[in-house]
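Rotation project, supervised by the postdoc (A.L.). Task for the rotation student: set up a whole-complex structure prediction and record inputs and outputs verbatim in this book. Inputs entered:
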Amino acid sequence: MADESKAPKSPESSQPDVSGSSPAPSAAGATPSSPAKAAAPAPMQVPLDNDLSRRYRERFGAGILDALEDRKQSILIVGAAQLLEIARYSLDEEKFDLLEDYTAVDWPRREKRFDLVAQLYSFTHNTRLRLKIPLGVEERPSTLATTWPAANWLEREIFDLFGIAFLGHPNLKRILLPDEWQGHPLRKDYDILQQDTAWVRENLDIESGQ
Amino acid sequence: MADTMHENGAQKTDTLFGADELVINMGPQHPSTHGVLRVKLKLDGERVVGSECVIGYLHRGVEKIAENRTYQQFAPYVDRMDYVAAVSNGLGYCEAVEKLLVVEAPPRARVIRTILTELQRIASHLLWLGTHALDIGALTPLFYCMREREEVLKIFEKYCGARLTTHAFRIGGLQYEAYDNLEKDVERFCKDFESRIQQYSDLLTGNSIWIGRTRNVGLLNSADCIALGASGPVLRASGVKWDMRKAMPYAAYDQYKFEIPVGTRGDTYDRYMVRIEEMRQSRLICLQAIENIPTGPIMARVGKVLKPPAGEVYHAIEGPKGILGYYIVSDGSVQPYRVRIRPPSFINLQALDKMIRGHLVTDVVAIIGTLDIVLGEVDR
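Outputs recorded:
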């Protein structure tokens, strides 16, 4: 796993939505169902301060909003503005040659509503690194498909299910849902029973898919 | 194939449809697509010059469902993604949630999990081999492969009562103790299986038709594999000696000796050889594991209501098809805030376009087969 166990230091960052720009209260408030009890003992997320995070900070300064460690896995919170340079650097210098996964998480109560989450893996060092990019609703991040071609379909999936549009993507259109579908199902304000009833009526000749 | 659903969108973005080339549809209902996959092929004569996959026919919104279920309730759903390797899916999910909870399954549970997961890998590869050979025109291997797969499914059935969507594991360990003769059954299967693999090999490995249809078909070199994220046997066949079970061991894999088979050219024949050898290695792992199954509890102390501390975790295993990852975000409640599944089939399928360019339409069938995709997992 993404190594280097550090002793827990500060409790300030115990919520998963911590990022340089999140004044909103907490993750728990965002769930439709049960809010979490505030009984959590030791915080699972602690600041990360190892060689890797120092190299990134030195190189990109304010572009690295935060560095965390959660259950021994390294996380860098990265500003969207410098995403492309950071991705390039990760691939070329740090040898994170595999973009293992790329997805998003919706935090509707936060000022920056989305987190893009990239799981990087390095064959050379056998380590993982997670990049998290906080993103406002209207923001359009640069595509990573030029850095890691694997991002092509993954970004289409994010676009399809979250409605995040990537700048410079070679073929940005829906991938899992029909092209004419309205709405983005993995957003938290899209109810689980919700659907594009107009599309269903028109194309499937039934009143409802439920 | 009458289909208006995606036509407009495709034209708008201009990925296909040049002036003089012929565009044909393969699928969605085509026996060689192993599910509901539609591939638009742009042809110059009979040669493929471009392609586009249209997927999503089996999309059920598994990740959305996860956010509306408790951690335990969601576990049976993962079986229905890659439904020919349900045990592997379950292992990845259970281990990811265990990591999130910061608990570890007891040693006995981990060894039994390893045995069942390796049997599942054999079953998954057998189904792949049978259908892949059938696609290319060899009818016989299918019957042989189904014969051995049946033995594996019988072991699953004896263990947990289900054959396909097994839900064999629980978060924290196992629900069921191993039945009395599990070791004996596994041993008997493994003993027989060695000669059975030889039978498949006799039918195909030196078969000149097989070689003609698979050698230098669907080439993918290691750099392209890594760039496109392709993993599992596809990656290994291109010469990268890498396996999650060795790189970041989970379950009980660190205790067993096994080899990582690799190919040299990264063609369809190499991928066939790699999977055949992987079955041999899985058999060896099973034989080592039944030698010494630790005694003790099969369930860690996790409680009835799971409320993982707020935070997030990513855990990946080496599924039969490639890296199977789970990224789970917890907000401290009983339901996951977000579950992301990194589906190996989906990401491997992305390499299809690169692999089929320049080949004949008949080779497309072989190349879809060699990727070993399951559409239930591609579409989720």
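Student's summary: Residues 62-379 of chain B form a domain with the Cytochrome-c3 Hydrogenase; chain B fold (CATH 1.10.645.10).
Supervisor addendum: The CA atoms of residues 232 and 322 of chain B lie 4 Å apart.
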